Amino acid sequence: MSVSRKLSVRYHFYLWLLFCLFCGRALKAGEVVWASRVLGFSSEYRPAPYGSEYRAVQVLGEPNKFPDAGDSPCAWSPASADGHAEEWIKVGFPAAVPLRQVIIAENFNPGAIVRVYAYDGGGKEYLLEDGSVLEADGARGRLLRLSAPAQLAVDAEAIKIVMKPSKVAGFNQVDAIGIAPSRTPVKVGIRLAPDIPSKVVKEDLGKHINSKGDQVAPVISPDGRVLYFTRSGHPGNVGSPDNQDVWYAVLGKNGQWGEALNLRAPVNTRDNNAVIGMSPDGKTLYLLNTYLRDGAMGAGLSKSALTSSGWSFPVACVIRNYYNLDPSQEVEFSISPKGNVLLMALCRRDTKGRKDIYVSFLMPDGTWSEPANVGDRVNTADTEGAPYLAPDNKTLYFTSFGHRGYGSGDIFVSRRLDDTWLNWSAPENLGPGINSPYWDGYFSVPASGEFAYLSSNENAVRRDHLYRVRLHPSARPEAVAVVTGSVADADSRLPLKARIRVDNGKTNEPVDSLDYDPQTGEFHLLLPLRNTYRITAAADGYLSATETADLLQERGSAGRKADLRLIPLQEGRKIALNQVFFARSSPEIEPASVPELNRIAALMKKYPTLEILLEGHTDNQGDFRKNLQLSEERVQAVKDFLVGQEIAPGRVQIKAWGASRPVGNNLTEEARRRNRRVEFTILKI
Q1: What residues have CB less than 8 Å from 420, skipping those under 6 apart?
Q2: What is the pLDDT of residues 618-644, one digit of tens each?
Q3: How crowded is residue 509: how many other Cβ atoms within 10 Å of its Cβ?
Q4: How far apart are CA 97 and CA 20, in angstroms?
Q5: What's the mean pLDDT when you consider all of the chain?
Q6: In the structure, what pLDDT confidence band is assigned to residue 4 with cuts at 50, 70 and 90?
Q7: What pLDDT is stored for residue 9 in this prediction?
Q8: Following DSSP, what letter does each residue of 58-90 receive, concatenated?
Q9: Most buried by CB count within 10 Å: which residue of 177, 296, 338, 443?
Q10: E-assigned strands of 570-651?
Q11: Which of 567, 577, 565, 547 is nearest to 637 (CA)?
C-alpha cells in the first residue's frame, strides 16, 4: 500500500472515529447509519400542494413503515408508476462510514431497483450490485441487504439507487437507505416502550358501557370514577340513532360500571356530538364542534359548564386562524389538565402529512393562539391523530400511521421535553398487547397512571368498544395527587365562593388557580408528586386561608383533602400566621413566608383603613429575656416587610410576649412548634 493510501485510510478512520464520538458512542455490530440528506433525485410523487408525502426527504432517517409492508406516504416514490425511464435517488450520510453492508427498506412493490452505487469522500463511484439479488420475487415489501465485496475497502459518504419502475407494476417505494460498518445481518424492529409486555389483557368495560353500536373516545375523570364517551348506533341517542351522542357512566362501590346515561340537551343535539376532555373537577366539559342556537353545528371546539341547574349551553372556544383543510373536516382535540393548552389533530398548510398534531395556548383575552405544529419528532408524512395529554401535563399518547407499528394505526407515547411544547421524546409503540392489526386509539388515563381506557375494534365484530388495560411502568405518565376540598366561613361553616391559588412550596412560583363555586361540589387539583404546595383560598370580606400539601414522600397516586376555613374580617379577630417562618433562633424571615406576607400586604391595600396589631411568641426553651427579645425582633421584621410593601407604619403596631402566652404545654416538639408563632389582631377596619 502506498504512503498516500495509508494516510487516506488513516484520515478516514479518524473521521469515522470523530463521527462515532459525535454520536455519543461507537456503533455496535449490526447497527446502521441511516441517510441524513438528499443529494439528488430524478422525480418525486406530489399528490398534494402541501405536506411532504412521498417526497425524496422521506427516504432519510430510520424506516417509518418497515417492518410492515405496503403503501406509505413516509417513503420516497418516483412521480409516476410503471414508467420506462429510469428513476434514481442519491443520499448522503453524517460522515464517511466503512462500507460493509447497504440496507434498503423497500416497503411497497419491491424489486424495481436495478443498480446500487456507493461514493467515497472524493466522489468516486463504486458499483455495488446490478444482478439478480435485486429481484424481489413478488414480495409486498422487504429489507434488502447488500454486502459489499470483500476486496472493496471504501469509506462511503453517499449511496445511489437506480430503479426501473416498469419492472414491477405499481408505485415503487423506498422507506430508508442505510450503511452498516459490519457484515452482521441487520434487523429493523419497532421502537417499543422499554420492557413492554407482548401480551396485555384488554378488559371489556361490560354491557353497561359497550352496546351493539360504536363506543369511542373515552374520557375518564382523574379519580377514575366517572367515564364519558361518545356513542353511535344506539336507539337512545338524541335525533338519529346513527349520529353520535355523549354518554356517561359512574363506577359503583362494587367496582362495576353503572348503566350508561345519555347526557341529553344542550350537550346532545340532533347532529353529531362528542366529548374530548374535562376539567379535573368535572365541572367543565370540552366538546367537539361549535353549537349554534338553531341546533346546527360549526367546526371547532366548545365547552359547557356544570351549574346548579345542569350543563350550560356550550360556548365556542375561539382559536385564532383556525381552519382545517381536511375535506371531511375531521379533527380531534385534547385539553391539558390545567385547561390552558390545547392539542389538536387536523390538516393545515404546514401539515407534514395527511393530519398532524398541533398545539394552541389560552391567551389573556380568553381566545386560543394560532395552532403551531408540534414538530417532526411526533408528526410524520402520514396521519397522526387522537392526541391525549395525560394528567401529568407531560405525557402524550397518540395514534399514528407513520411510525413503525403493527397495523392500521397504533398508539404511541411521547414525553414533552420543555415548555415550548415543540420538543418531544422519540415516540415509542405501546406493543402488540395494546396495538392490534386494526385501528387503536383514544387513550385516556386517570391520575394514578396505572390503567388506560381506549377504543378498539379488535374483538368487537367491526364495532368500536371501550376497554381498560393495565399500563406497564415504562408506558405510564408520572402519577399525580388528586387534592379535593371545599371553602367555608370559619364561624358559620357555610360554604363560600372563593378563588383558589396553588404555589410551589419550594420556589413560591404559582402552580395553578381556579374559581370555587360550592353549588357544584368540591374543587379538584392535580398536583405532581415529590413536592410541597401551598393551597390558598381568598374571598371578599375574609382573611385568606392556606393549607400545605406535602407530597415529598409520595411515590404512588395519592388522594388528599384540603378544606379551607376563611375568617371574617372583624375588629378584634385574632389570626395566627401559620405560613410565616423564621430561621432557627433568628428574626430572619424565610423565603417560604413571602407569599403569606404578600397576601397580608395586599389585604391592607384593599382595605386602606385596616389597622393591625402584630404579636410575637416563642416556646419556653432557653433564656426568657432572650426569647422576649427574639419575639420582638421577629414581629419587627414582619412590620418592616409590610412597610416595604408601602403600608404606612402607623397602621401596624407590634407587641412581643416571648414565652409568656403559650397555646400548648411545651412538652413536645410539636407543641413547642405551635407556640413559636406570629399572630395579628384586627384593631380597625
Answers
A1: none
A2: 888 888 898 899 989 999 999 999 999
A3: 9
A4: 10
A5: 90
A6: very low
A7: 36
A8: GGSSS-SSTTS-S--TTSB--SSSS-SS-EEEE
A9: 443
A10: 574-576, 611-617
A11: 577
Question: DSSP letter at 354?
Answer: S
* pLDDT 10s digits, 412-430: 999 999 999 999 999 999 9
Looking at residue 138, its pLDDT comes to: 81
d(CA 63, CA 251): 43
pLDDT at 7: 32
What gap in Å lies between CA 325 and CA 614, rounded to an integer? Answer: 64
d(CA 228, CA 253): 18
Cα pseudo-dihedral 57, 61, 67, 72, rounded to 10: -20
Residue-level pLDDT at 557 = 61
Torsion sign across C-alpha atoms 234, 236, 241, 244: negative
Query: What confidence score (pLDDT) does residue 461 get?
Result: 56
The C-alpha cell 382559536 sits at 319
Question: Do the Cβ atoms of 366 and 394 come closer than 8 Å?
Answer: no
Q: What angle do CA 142, 438, 190 make, to 5 degrees?
A: 45
Residue 680 above 50 pLDDT? Answer: yes
Higher pLDDT, 135 or 5: 135
Strands 101-106 and 176-180 turn out to be antiparallel
CA dihedral in degrees (573, 576, 577, 583; nearest 10)? 140
pLDDT at 256: 93
Rounded to the nearest 10 degrees, what angle do helices 594-606 and 624-644 cross at? 60
Checking if the pLDDT of 370 tops 60, the result is yes
Residue pLDDT, tens place only, 222-237: 999 999 999 999 999 9
Distance of CA 158 to the CA centre of its chain: 38
- pLDDT higher than threshold 60 for residue 27: no
The number of beta carbons lying within 10 Å of the beta carbon of residue 489 is 16
Cell 396553588 maps to which residue? Answer: 502
Distance between CA atoms of 633 and 614, rounded to whole angstroms? 12
- Identify which has the larger pLDDT, 157 or 13: 157
> Does the pLDDT at position 29 exceed 70?
no
Distances (CA, A) of 675 to 434, 476, 588, 616, 638: 57, 44, 18, 10, 17
Contact in structure between 622 and 631 (CB atoms under 8 Å) = no
Helix, strand, coil percentages for the chain (3-state, nearest 5): 10, 40, 50
Side-by-side strand order, sheet with 559-561: 523-528, 480-485, 559-561
Residue 381 neighbours by CB under 8 Å, 6+ apart? 51, 52, 53, 54, 55, 58, 64, 73, 74, 352, 353, 354, 402
What is the per-residue pLDDT for 438? Answer: 84
Pick from 187, 188, 268, 186: nearest CA to 228: 268
DSSP letter assigned to residue 363 = -
Nearest to 614 by CA among 580, 665, 590: 580
83-102: buried (b, 16+ CB within 10 Å) or exposed (e) per residue?
A: beeebbbbbbbebbbbbbbb
599 three-class SS = helix
